[in-house]
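User: Can you model how manganese (II) ion sits in this protein?
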Amino acid sequence: MRKGKPVAQSPITLTRHILEEQAAHPGATGEFSTIMAQIALAAKIIARDMSRAGLIDVLGLTGATNIQGEAVQKLDQLSNETFVRAFEYYGGLVRTLVSEEMDKPLHVGGLLLDGTRQGKYALFFDPLDGSSNVDVNATVGSIFSVHKVPEHARPDSDADLLKTGAEQVAAGYVLYGPSTVLVYTVGAGVHQFTLDPGIGEFILSARHLTMPQRGKVYSANEGNYPKWPTGTRRFVDYLRDKDQATGRPYSSRYSGCLVADVHRLFSVGGVYLYPAETGKPEGKLRLMYEAAPLAFVVEQAGGRASTGTQLIADIKPTTLHQRVPLIIGSRDDVSRAEEFIAGG
Ligand code: AHG
Ligand code: MN
Ligand code: MN
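Assistant: Here's the modeled complex, given as structure tokens:
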């Protein structure tokens, strides 16, 4: 062997990491690595499109309104199409796609002779989270969640897709910031990858991410304060009170992008809230492709996610686009919020 400096360990790509994880878990099949590879591909294309957003005609509104009643940005639509294209020919694995930007599930799995469809998994996604940030060149994200669908599912039935967060087999997000970061879990810890644009690969940048048990930061749209329930208002008042022993007041940080605000909590700890409001008891965020996947990731990192009265992971959805109040982040901070909410 040649003498000299030791050769640096080669970077660990997302694909290699998933294959290694798979080898370590004998029950795991190779299927998930193909799904992750397609999610990574969609993320790379979205990151590329976003980096040129001011130069090509992708900024602004399409003029359409989505199922949520929200104005659709051109980049919402483009990112949705990117996810769909990444999966529509993967009939063998993913049977159904559910997106914030599609009123109805898209059944991409090929129809079989017995009337059922090919594919063991359903992919839920928010293709572009925080899309109002795009026009001001601020951070946005994508969120994804993978569920197993019953083998002999009724053809194209929504009921088979209405599963709790606890049943997710994988979840994660992509953050398009100064660098593009992909964070995911399959229930065996949380791992982070950073896109090296020079080689077009996601490279492992943090293994087994954890979240501080208690934090220093809270994130909420405080313009809505007067609409929050009393318990929630009292919790935020408490965070703003001065108390050296518990490190209060907390700092306030709110980007308008859920992914970015939750990602921050991995470094500094704390809590993100999008609470219930007067006349809007279900809050704003969607359960199946915003709250539940982020709850899975945060819980795997030692954090907690709740509506204030119930764990997000335990909610049995009644509709695919259902909304929930969300309080997510460091375990002690979310538990404290629950105490205030229980006190009314
Ligand atoms: P989306 O862009 O997918 O509709 O999600 C926006 C979400 C979330 O990212 C963010 O935290 C929140 O809505 C911001 O809402 P407000 O503008 O009401 O604060
Ligand atoms: Mn969103
Ligand atoms: Mn969105």
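A couple of observations from the model: The chain has two domains: 14-206, 217-343. The radius of gyration is 20 Å.
User: Helpful, thanks.
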